[in-house]
Amino acid sequence: MLDKAPDGKVSDLLAALDKALSAGEVERAVDLFQTDCYWRDLVTFTWNIKTMEGKEQVRDMLKARLADTKPSNWKIADGEDASEAGGIIESWIQFETEVARGFGHMRLKDGQIWTLLTTMSELKGHEEPVGFDRPMGAKHGAERNRKTWKEEREAEAAELGYSRQPYCVIVGGGQGGIALGARLRQLNVPTIILEKNERPGDSWRKRYKSLCLHDPVWYDHLPYLPFPRNWPVFSPKDKIGDWLEMYTKVMELNYWGSSECSKASYDEKSREWTVVVQRDGKEIVLKPKQLVLATGMSAKPSMPKFESMDIFKGDQHHSSQHPGSDKYKSSKAVVIGSNNSAHDICAALWEAGADVTMVQRSTTHIVRSDSLMELGLAALYSEQAVQSGVTTAKADLIFASLPYKILHEFQIPVYNAIRERDADFYNRLEKAGFLLDYGDDDSGLFMKYLRRGSGYYIDVGASELIANGSVKLKSGVDVKKLTEHSVILSDGTELPADLVVYATGYGSMNGFAADLISREVADKVGKVWGLGSNTTKDPGPWEGEQRNMWKPTQQEGLWFHGGNLHQSRHYSQFLSLQLKARMEGIPTPVYGLQKVHHLS
């Protein structure tokens, strides 16, 4: 008898899983999993973002959550087929719980579940108004004194935050806040986005003029409204700024520009926030139930403290405040740092005619943009991927289906191939004195980003300037002190300087929470970002997910949302559903709320 095709094997296993879970037979369900299994759940079972690693953790979760969730109707997703390669069967799946519809991905190894991804697609009875359910827009018929769409929008803008309180306030109107705001708008969750800049997109417009996205367009779409097919592969900062402004308008977001949140506090009895906002010279007090900090990983610049900084006569500033390079055409510039911003600024200063020296204090991972595109991203985020049926939504879920615990195992071969392909490039950099690394376990850029959010540069040209000596380099040293007109390094070298740029990165997002709310709340929540991998700048113990991101925290009603454009798009779906469920009074018992091991 021939073995069943992949569809048959997946259908049989899903039927067995459905039967076991419907009967409440946890052990029968657990027996369907590999010993080294991983179940990553995005909200459906845990009301959390949580990965269960191994059969014991799967068993514990099901014992705690099965009775409440009541999962059913497990099957291969409509219109999809299972596939088999290298002894692994993969399939898109769909299912339901008592309150939601779910979508997911499954890998089978030796006939058992190896990896399982379950995600919440929509809440029953609170579906987004799309397709056949889209709003009419026009009001047919005759009615006296009826309001037009424009008048209704103007009335909403005049009321929300004044005579009517928002359910949710998002602090930060960059791509993260805008993406989440769009999701919440479609779920009819009254939301105000607060942004200190005047216009949406200003956080991009106000950066140095050469800034350009290093991630390709297929990786960077916003929810609902993808970039046009003729959009450039890499978006210039002003173009992305204009797109965000347009997006904010057409998605009808309640976006308060020129509005700075000065303080916030939570009342445990009323279970609501008091958020004080300075808007156009006036103080406004908002009373939301939910507060989302969407200030991004660059909310809190890390400004170093070196001896005698106060006596330096030239210009000095953090890279986030760099105004551009035109005014420094004949200057002697020293850039402290060697990651993305440092490289971009060094290249722009050199192009403007400045004499530039980069001070590299620790090793940096470099990957050439074209190599990253072809070897690291092409399978999921490229024109070829789109043509082969891998939509951005599917790409997001495929990437999400790989558990963080083993993700580095998939990344190491990719970066080994890149090292081999670009061996001459790396040799030339090392001969120039540049200190390279490839991650603590040679797993490359994505793992560095997920673990620590820093320590790398996607090369779009600056590395060549270092390799050929156009940009001078001092590596393996630190700054000892500044004088009136120079930077003194730890090895005694004196660098004459008219400009010092501190490309020294950013602190944990909870530093912003400490400033806005209190140090006590920030410490209650703990460190934001990182996996607990016990690698450089990502201390253990192992978390298995990004600390405090897009999920409940130890402070009720406080959420963190951010990351790159891909993460803002993908995880905004799951954060918006968590907020909607709470607004509608749907029980949301959180399973596996993370413990706090590190304060910042």
* Helix-residue proportion: 25-40%
CATH fold annotation of the largest domain: FAD/NAD(P)-binding domain
Sheet/helix structural class: alpha/beta
As an assembly, this protein is single chain
Terminal CA distance = 60 Å
Number of domains: 3
Number of contiguous helices? 18
Mean pLDDT: 94
Indicate the proportion of strand residues: 15-25%
Please identify which CATH superfamily of the largest domain we are dealing with. FAD/NAD(P)-binding domain
Q: What is the name of the CATH architecture of the largest domain?
A: 3-Layer(bba) Sandwich
Task: Explain what this protein looks like in three dimensions.
This protein is an alpha/beta fold and 600 residues long. It has three domains: 5-123, Nuclear Transport Factor 2, Chain: A (Roll); 157-299 and 507-584, FAD/NAD(P)-binding domain (3-Layer(bba) Sandwich); 315-502, FAD/NAD(P)-binding domain (3-Layer(bba) Sandwich), CATH 3.50.50.60. Helix content is 32%, strand content 22%. It has 18 helices and 25 strands. Strands 1, 2, 3, 4, 5, 6 and 7 form a seven-stranded mixed β-sheet that branches. It has a five-stranded parallel β-sheet with strand order 10-9-8-14-25, with helices on one face. Strands 15-24-16-17-20 form a five-stranded parallel β-sheet, covered by helices on one side. A hairpin with a 2-residue loop joins β12 (272-279) and β13. The longest helix is centred in the last third of the chain and has 19 residues, at 565-583. It is globular and about 75 Å long. The mean pLDDT is 94.
